[in-house]
Design goal:
Shape: globular
Largest sheet: 4 strands, antiparallel
Order of helices and strands: EHEEHEHHHHHHH
CATH class of the largest domain: Mainly Alpha
Helix content: 55-70%
């Protein structure tokens, strides 16, 4: 039995879901981002208790097929950009179609209809969030970041970064350094 969870995007969410399942006396399951794979059926009462306890933490159980598909798309994008060491070498539309078993046009139309933005824009937003994270950690330079996130060039990364954030990557990085300097003055 599979239970799909909305807004489950981090390791902390996985831990929370695992704890809630254990509180219900359930132990035969696997939790991944956006999904609980139960090895046994749960009662209607247990499912309702789980739904209520997850709602308190901002997570929702999904029942609608289209909502489940949208969550799968979001989860794949988040895993691909934030949690994998290497982005896929094929383009994102082919990657999502292959992973989900649907035509990309169908996926794109469903996603846009529900989320109000395109899959491509969702991917760009998450790539920029990842760039911000990598800039703050200061482990990679901009060239290495652009390569890691499959940008065609540093200029392309910088253009998208400025379009989304209103700042250049360098200015953003310097903000962090300036904030750190201000804290040291206290």
């Amino acid at each position: 039995m599979k239970i799909y969870i909305k807004y489950m995007v981090s390791l902390r969410c996985k831990i929370l879901v695992t704890e809630e399942l254990n509180k219900l006396g359930l132990y035969n399951f696997t939790v991944t981002l956006g999904l609980i794979d139960m090895l046994e059926n749960i009662s209607i009462e247990q499912r309702e208790q789980l739904r209520l306890s997850l709602l308190k933490s901002g997570l929702e159980i999904l029942d609608n097929r289209k909502s489940i598909l949208i969550e799968k798309i979001k989860t794949l994008v988040i895993e691909m950009i934030h949690y994998s060491d290497e982005l896929p070498s094929i383009n994102y539309s082919d990657y999502l179609s292959k992973k989900l078993g649907y035509n990309y046009t169908y996926l794109a139309n469903a996603f846009s209809e529900v989320k109000g933005i395109t899959i491509q824009h969702f991917i760009i937003i998450h790539k920029i969030e990842r760039v911000k994270e990598l800039l703050i950690y200061n482990e990679l330079n901009l060239t290495e970041i652009s390569y890691k996130l499959n940008y065609s060039s540093v200029a392309h990364l910088s253009y998208q970064f400025k379009k989304i954030t209103g700042l250049t990557p360098t200015f953003y990085k310097n903000l962090k350094n300036k904030r750190k300097a201000n804290l040291e003055d206290l």
